What we know:
The chain is α/β, with parallel strands linked by helices and 423 residues long. Helices cover 51% and strands 18% of the residues. The strands form two sheets. A six-stranded antiparallel β-sheet has the order 4-3-6-1-2-5. Strands 9-8-7-10-11 form a five-stranded parallel β-sheet, sandwiched between helices.
Amino acid sequence: MAVILLVVALPVVRWFMIVPLNPRWINFSAVTTSLGQLAGIIGLTLFAINLLFSARAKIWDDFFYGLNNLYVWHARIGALAFSLLLFHPLLLVVKYVSVSLMSAVGFFLPSQGWPTFLGVIALSGMIIVLSITFYVFWKYQNWKLSHKFMVAVFVFAWLHAALIPSDISRDMFLRYYLLGLGLGGFLAGAYQALLSRIWNRHYIYDLAGLRRLNEQTIELELAPRKRRLVFSPGQFIFIRFFGNDIRSESHPFSLTSNPGEKNLSLAVKSLGDFTSELQKIKPGMAVSIEGPYGKFSHLNIRNNKQVWVAGGVGITPFLSMARSLVGTEYEIDLYYCVNEPAEAILMEELKAVSASQNNFRLIPWYSKTQGRITGQKISEMSGGLGDKDIFLCGPPAFMSSLQRQCLMLKIPGKNIHFENFAL
Length: 423
C-alpha cells in the first residue's frame, strides 16, 4: 500500500510545485479546473498501475502475499481510477457551463480537437466496459475478453494526456513520469491480453485419470510430460485443457495433492459454465498449467497451533495441507462444514489422516442437523482460539461471517487467514 501511495504521490507533489498555488485556487472556476487536473493525473496513474498488476507476474504474488489479495486491490484501484477519470472532464467543463450550456456540450465534441476527443473516447470506452462488468451477467470468458479492451481504452487516455496542452506537456518530470508509467502499464496489459499464452511459464501435463467424488465433484489426476510443478500445500494453479469438446479457457483451481507426489490432483465442483464443461474431459487430454500462486498455507505461519475451517468446496486447499502433515509437529483442528454427509468429498481419506496423525483432528459439521457453525462453537470445541492461527476457506459470505465472529472473540486480525479468490 505504501508503495502505491508513493507512486501516486510523486506526480501530485510535482503538480503543486510547477506554478504558484494562488492562481490555481483564486476563484471557483480555477478550483474546479485544478481539481479536474488532479483527478486526471491521479486517475491516469492508477489506471497504469492497474494494468501493471494485470500481468500475473510472480513478483505480484509475493508483493501482495497472494494473487487473491492482488485481485482485491485490482478491483479497488480500478474503481477509484474510473471515478477520478469520470470526474476529470466533469470538473473541467464547469468553466464552460458558466458561459453557456452549448459551450459545455461542445467541450465533448470533436470540434475541440483530437487531443480532447481522444479523452472522450477513452472515458466512453471505460464506461462501456465497466458497465458490462457491473450490470451484465456474462460467462466468465466473455467477461474476461471484455477486460482486454481496457488496454485499448488506456491507449486513448494515454494519447490524450500526451497530446493535450496541459501541465503534463509543459513539465518534463510529469511528462516522462506519466508517459513512462503509462508505457509500462500498456506493455503489461498488452502482454496479459495478447501474449501471456506464449511467454508465460507453463507446465504441460496429461490428464492421467479422473474420479467422481459425488454428483457435482470430480477429482482430476495430472501427470507431467517433462518438468514437474513445485508448489506448497494450499497453493492454486491456472489450468487450460486442450480438446475439441471443451473451451480453451484458463481458470484457477486449488491443488489437493501432496507436494511430494509426482502427479498433481485437484477436485473440481460444477459451479459455473466452465466447471460444468469439465464433465466432457477425457483421460489423455493435454493440460497447460500456470503457477503456482497463493500464500494460503500452514507452512507460512510460525504458529504450530492452527484451526482450519472449510466450507463446501473450500476443503480443497486443506486436502493438500492435510496430506503433507506426516512427520510434522503442527497441531491442527479441521472443521469440514457441509449441508449433509453426501456433500463431503474425500472424507474417508481425511479420517484416515486423522487416525494416523495424533496432531490432526477432523471435526465434520453438517449444518442441516447441527445448524450453522459459529466462531463461539469453534472456540469451545478447540479449547479457545487465542493461541491459535485460523484458516478460512469457503463461500465469501461464510468466510466473512466467521471472520467477524472471530474478531468479536478478540482474535487478532493478523491471526485470521483466508483464501478469497473469486473472479
